[in-house]
Write a structure and sequence with these properties.
The chain is of the alpha/beta class. It has 10 helices and 7 strands. Helices cover 49% and strands 12% of the residues. Helix 3 runs parallel beside helix 4. The relative contact order is 0.14.
Length: 326
């Protein structure tokens, strides 16, 4: 009996050491780190078709590059066609001949035009004959004091970050159900895991997206349809500059600085591609100290104590990579 307890104790110690090491060393959760090294390679999706919204910049753009390097066919969707054409040319160069011009479809698309989602999706299906993955990546962030946020801002944030994603996903699901398989992927945020101060509209929309997608995953457990929720932390993109604020039509306007402690967009794109290749349910990707904070959410009392210690202003500085006062 003692030897069994010793083995269990040793296993717990090893697990704890691996866990502690992972949250300080890795830039993603332990499951994602494992699958990046030992799981299905991104190359396993070669020849498949991935539909990416918000593909003209940031995470969507760099996920497209990660796929193009492995010969994955792409639908690049966003409002800015000039930027999409630029991304397409870069994808073709990175593919090193594996992709031809016909293998990367540029689709000028406004996510807020819900009545045209079926038309957009049909254009992509008609071009390739099928879609294997829908990556709902388009969205915006937001900054503002909770009680000062205009209701119109809340509505606009939910319309873009939640309702447009739900609508396009339902269009894609009809296609996946007909073919008998498919993969739904959404970009959420670490802010969607727990309530982030000074971003109530954004946090609310992403948290709601989590619950919607978890419900979808549970409904489709036996339908051969995978659902993945990707949760990036702060990344070197123009996301912050174009964030909503407290008032409609007013952008945050602050640019990310080269000295900020953020994950590179290239790295985030690679991790997104690994998540999709392995059909992971949920993935976290962020630099220290965000991963420990995310794991602490499993211990609500500890999380609450830490939030009281940081305070809303301290956490706000931490989130936007400003120097803390202690």
């Amino acid at each position: 009996m003692l030897w069994l307890l010793a083995i269990i104790g040793a296993a717990l110690i090893v697990y704890t050491l691996v866990y502690v090491f992972s949250v300080f060393y890795f830039d993603c959760d332990l499951s994602l780190a494992y699958h990046e090294k030992f799981g299905k390679p991104i190359e396993s999706l070669k020849g498949k078709v991935v539909f990416i919204t918000g593909a003209s910049s940031g995470i969507g753009e760099h996920t497209a590059y990660a796929f193009a390097k492995r010969g994955v066919k792409l639908v690049l969707a966003a409002r800015r066609k000039i930027e999409l054409d630029r991304v397409k040319q870069e994808c073709l160069q990175l593919s090193n001949g594996a992709l031809g011009a016909e293998d990367v479809l540029v689709l000028e698309m406004d996510m807020l035009k819900l009545d045209k989602h079926e038309e957009y999706f049909k254009t992509a299906v008609d071009h390739f004959g099928t879609i294997d993955v829908i990556f709902n990546n388009a969205g915006r962030s937001q900054r503002g004091i909770w009680e000062r946020i205009a209701m119109q801002v809340d509505k606009e944030m939910f319309e873009l970050n939640l309702f447009s994603v739900i609508n396009l996903t339902r269009v894609a699901l009809a296609h996946f159900t007909e073919k008998g398989k498919g993969h739904v992927v959404v970009t959420s945020s670490v802010a969607g895991v727990f309530g982030v101060p000074h971003s109530a509209s954004y946090t609310g929309s992403k948290h709601a997206l989590h619950v919607y997608m978890n419900a979808l995953r549970n409904e489709k457990l036996r339908a051969n349809i995978a659902v993945s929720v990707i949760c990036p932390g702060t990344v070197f993109t123009n996301f912050l500059q174009h964030s909503f604020t407290e008032q409609p039509g007013v952008m945050f306007g602050i640019k990310v600085q080269p000295t900020d402690h953020r994950m590179k967009a290239e790295r985030c794109g690679e991790l997104c591609a690994v998540t999709i290749a392995n059909q992971l349910n949920e993935s976290w990707m962020a630099l220290f100290p965000f991963l420990p904070l995310l794991y602490i959410t499993y211990f609500p009392n500890i999380c609450s104590a830490l939030m009281r210690y940081l305070g809303p202003e301290g956490y706000y500085k931490l989130r936007d990579n400003r120097k803390l006062d202690f």
